[in-house]
Amino acid sequence: MATQNSMKLLEVCRVSPLFDSPNTATELSLPLTLFDLFFFKSTPIEFLSFYSHTHLDDHLYFDSILSKLKHSLSLTLAHFLPLVGKLIWPPNSQKPIIHYTPGDSISLTIAESDANFDNLSGHHVTEARDFCPLVPHLETSDSEASILTLQVTLFPSKGFCLGIVADHAVLDGKAMSLFLDSWVYISKLEKLITKNNATLLPELTPFFDRTVVKYPATLDSMFSNRLLAMNSRRSLKSFDFEVPADIVRATFELSRTDIEKIRKRVLSWGDKNGETKTNTSEPLHLSTFVLTFAYTVVCVAKAKEVESNKMIYLYIIANFRSRLDPPIPANYFGNCVGVGGIGAEARELMEESGLAIAAYRIIDGIKKMKGFLNEADKLIEMVTREKEVEGTQTQPEVISVAWSNKFRDYERDFGWGRPKKVELTNIHRTKATSMVDSKNGNGGVEVGMVLKKHEMDRFASLFVTGLQSL
């Protein structure tokens, strides 16, 4: 059962874009692309950053932090107007659109909690529901949906948590990372004290032009028609994504040394199993992502004690900006991810060569992403069809991964130090695995896990003993 702690609401305010520019005085509309529609009404992105400050019992100091946050946020939003707008679905539009109107603003909640800050910002096992009070609610209705909302939660004498929730139909992890990096950049500009404008570096300036995203128009109409068939009222009200009461979360770290040991083990086992050999002359790319996910997958399969003949499907979501033909700018703001999936029988992953099999299967899945758009019609059908009855023995086990260790989340310093801990809490609902770069900056990775308590206990033991045996 989740710990019962009190949460005191201190303030709920609105933050508007602040910029000496005609852009904020002009309406803006952007259509959702095929890549956006894949995440329509999906679980929002929920990102928490914990900052440790032992002298936050001084409310004047906390107020100064809030003042700087609000001001820099207002300046940053002027560059990211779609985040301030609303998602709407006009009667004359086949699909939803992002619409910004001058005067739009986002909600910012300020709260105070007496929960255990060290527990929430640590690596150890914690009940997933304990994080819920730190996650702000994203307002949605039948007619419109907010795109971004924030919450700052004070833990007196300990620190504070910055919670950000964004509609996944509007942006992916890469775009969210761009927004956060831009906000940090503006927050640290000294000239903000006297001027109500701030210029972003070119690489931080969002690119909104949807026309650069090329794909067959038939896919757009196919997706839109299926959405309308399922949702004739054009409702934007989100589904109810409850955090299950029986799950816990924990963070596990792989150092650069650990990752290199995994790499050597995969290579040494690679020739022992025919399925692990490549069919081309291309050199193997055993990236940090591949090795981390492979090791995690094997530990999960064993921790869940998956039946040996059951299929386990590994789903990978990757940035597709450079993979499109033609490629689109790295600072494109929206969704642009490809999905790759590949299966393996549980028994394969539990064998001695299971780590190598998992790594090579993941590589195969990444390679298959090149033809992602060629099979997009199948994915559209999968995403839009009604839920099937759960609980059958034939259902496959699914292990997916969210976020990226390339986003450098621990390098973001608004001016009061880097985060003590970052968490992606939407995995509490999706049951995905999250990956972020290591706080230690040593090239390692922090793996966020969500499992039932008895499964997490087994996973923790397998994770540690597995590394010791490498």
UniProtKB/TrEMBL annotation:
A GO molecular-function annotation: acyltransferase activity, transferring groups other than amino-acyl groups
Record key words, sorted: Acyltransferase, Transferase
InterPro entries: CAT-like_dom_sf, Plant_metabolite_acyltrans
Gene3D superfamilies: Chloramphenicol acetyltransferase-like domain
PANTHER family xrefs: PTHR31625
Protein's name in the database: Uncharacterized protein
Classification of source organism: Eukaryota, Viridiplantae, Streptophyta, Embryophyta, Tracheophyta
Gene name of the encoded protein: LOC115978173
